[in-house]
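testing teh design pipeline on a random one, pls ignore if ur not involved
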């Protein structure tokens, strides 16, 4: 049971970090995003790799 609770906490934490990262990238001004070589349309992919490392 403890491992299940631990798994849920980890999953919720990562999902929260993913959503927060996506929103940060989407809300970034386009000129700054492009200066950082980030295309705002790739927000989900960038956030996923950042949080889950895949």
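output:
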């Amino acid at each position: 049971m403890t491992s299940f609770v631990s798994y849920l906490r980890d999953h919720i934490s990562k999902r929260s970090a993913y959503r927060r990262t996506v929103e940060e990238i989407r809300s970034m001004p386009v000129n700054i995003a492009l200066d950082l070589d980030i295309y705002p349309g790739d927000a989900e992919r960038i956030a996923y790799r950042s949080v889950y490392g895949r």
